[in-house]
Write a structure and sequence with these properties.
heterodimer, A: mainly alpha, Urease accessory protein UreF, about 0% strand, B: mainly beta, nine-stranded mixed sheet, seven-stranded mixed sheet, 1 helix, 16 strands
């Protein structure tokens, strides 16, 4: 990237750090249409059974979600994908995505992750020219991959030149904050309570991201089994606000 | 067959058990054509229960458990159209790890076209301070089928041990041709994780899993709801895999009920498998 000769009409050639920060904020805006507001990844089952009822319950749950789920699952896929994209190891990336798909035992959560990845591609490709993302979209169209969000997101992050830690941090942040927003609607809680929970979660997210930096594919762990069962049971709920 | 003694002496030196079994379908009958065994692992001879053509083999571990640094390797080859049931005769007991050496177990399985394997079923009991790593890799084809059950204990429950092991890692991966359809890893490290939290293992002690992968599921209207009870101290979930596969997963504090359901579900899936 040439910092002195910035072509502002093309995001990929924008070398300005603050501009890149805005692009990053843009894709994590809750209005960015990747459908995160339609997925609870099993949380709704706990809300309906009154296991998550108060502000404190929500904080405890989201804290578990960061430390026992994201750090051991999707954050590892973000990290591994990031390194494979950097190395242009496409075969490795396809294999990794296959493993990501297979590692999600609960069908609804598996499908949700695919849907978000696909929607991310649909939203970003018309406004952002990227050879890697186009190639990824082709692989998706050819059914070589399912499009899982953590990996698709990582490809975008490498293209934009974000560093690995920022990529992991923002991924964990938006995954967690998305859940809080959804919980606030579903429980329901007041907006103020939602903000308090997010505020309280931020150090947890940061700690989680640092922790995930030391992890590798071999550290993958599905020990958030309770959440997995909740996701499996979700489709049997009488009425549902969320797809997953 | 040597009976297993409960209080078997802990061996002093590291042991490397090995069991390589090959099965082939010959004249309509499944035969165990090759059996290499290295203590403490042993296999029974092939048994034909109820005069059936499919073979059942008991897997035996004569040392009484894995001690720091011990390693057991299983290699199972099931040839075209062969039909095999493997029954570990006892749970895998993992003794405390001294000098930071984990015990490990590797299971490698290859199922050729039309081959059927039932592993009935794997139980792991990591004792206090135990450190255990297990890896199971299964390679199969779209026409082969697999029934795999397992229960992970939190420790010796009769001694009140509950997640006081140092580390317990299980890894199961199942590939159908070049597609991974299951990649399930549990890395439990109680001192570093909040396992009791809502969403993690909660108040539950036992984790059960039953995997069934079979071409017979295609177009089959299976329904397991009537076979699974939900209680405060026992719950389960059912999920379909990407491909012709089902996973039933349990979290439970009621071991007898968990075992009963695992058995009932296994029988239900075997019926599906045996439909023409």
């Amino acid at each position: 990237m040439n910092k002195r000769n910035v072509d502002l009409s093309s995001p990929s050639s924008t070398g300005d750090i603050s501009t890149n920060l805005l692009y990053l904020m843009h894709i994590h805006d809750s209005a960015f249409p990747i459908g995160s507001y339609t997925h609870s990844f099993g949380m709704e089952t706990y809300i309906q059974s009154d296991h998550i009822r108060t502000k404190q319950d929500l904080f405890d749950f989201c804290s578990m979600y960061v430390h026992e789920n994201l750090v051991y699952t999707d954050a590892i896929f973000v990290k591994e994908a990031f390194e494979k994209v950097q190395a242009s190891d496409w075969d490795g990336l396809i294999r990794l995505e296959n493993i990501c798909d297979a590692s999600k035992n609960a069908e609804e959560t598996r499908v949700a992750s695919r849907m978000m990845g696909k929607q991310f591609l649909q939203a970003i490709l018309p406004v952002f020219e990227s050879e890697s993302l186009l190639r990824w979209k082709q692989l998706l169209d050819n059914k070589a991959i399912k499009g899982h969000f953590p990996i698709t997101y990582s490809i975008y992050a490498v293209e934009m030149g974000y560093d690995l830690f920022t990529t992991m941090l923002t991924f964990i942040y938006s995954s967690t904050v998305g859940l809080v927003h959804n919980a606030v609607r579903a429980i329901p809680l007041g907006q103020k309570a939602g903000i308090q929970v997010i505020h309280q979660l931020i150090p947890e997210i940061s700690y989680g991201a640092k922790n995930a930096m030391d992890k590798q594919l071999k550290d993958l762990s599905n020990h958030a089994v309770g959440l997995e069962l909740s996701s499996m049971q979700h489709k049997f709920l009488q009425s549902r606000l969320f797809i997953s | 067959m040597q009976p297993l003694v409960n209080n078997a002496k802990i061996p002093l030196s590291k042991s490397n058990g090995k069991l390589d079994l090959s099965f082939e379908q010959k004249r309509g009958k499944t035969m165990m054509v090759d059996c290499y065994q290295h203590p403490p692992l042993k296999a029974s001879r092939g048994l034909y229960l109820d005069g059936s053509s499919h073979v059942t083999v008991y897997l035996m571990e004569s040392s009484g458990g894995l001690v720091a640094g011990d390693r057991n390797d299983f290699n199972i080859q099931v040839g075209q159209g062969a039909n095999v049931t493997l029954r570990p005769q006892s749970a895998t007991k993992v003794y405390p790890a001294f000098n930071n050496q984990p015990s490990s177990q590797q299971i490698s399985i290859n199922l050729e076209a039309g081959a059927e394997l039932e592993w009935d079923h794997e139980e792991v009991i990591p004792f206090k301070d135990a450190s255990f790593e297990s890896k199971t890799s299964i390679q199969m084809t779209p026409s082969s089928s697999l029934l795999w059950g397992e229960i992970l204990y939190p420790g010796r429950e009769k001694r009140g041990e509950s997640f006081v092991f140092d580390k317990c890692q299980t890894h199961l991966e199942i590939w159908v041709d070049h597609h991974c359809i299951a990649y399930d890893t549990l890395h439990l490290k109680p001192s570093e994780q909040n396992l009791k939290k809502l969403g993690a293992l909660e108040t539950y002690n036992f984790i059960g899993s039953l995997w069934f992968i079979s071409p017979k599921l295609e177009g089959n209207d299976w329904n397991v709801d009537g076979l699974l009870e939900q209680h405060d101290n026992h719950k389960s979930g059912v999920s379909t895999l990407n491909g012709n596969g089902i996973l039933i997963r349990w979290l439970s504090n009621r071991l007898p009920l968990l075992k009963k359901e695992l058995e009932n579900l296994s029988n239900y899936f075997k019926e599906i498998e045996n439909t023409v």
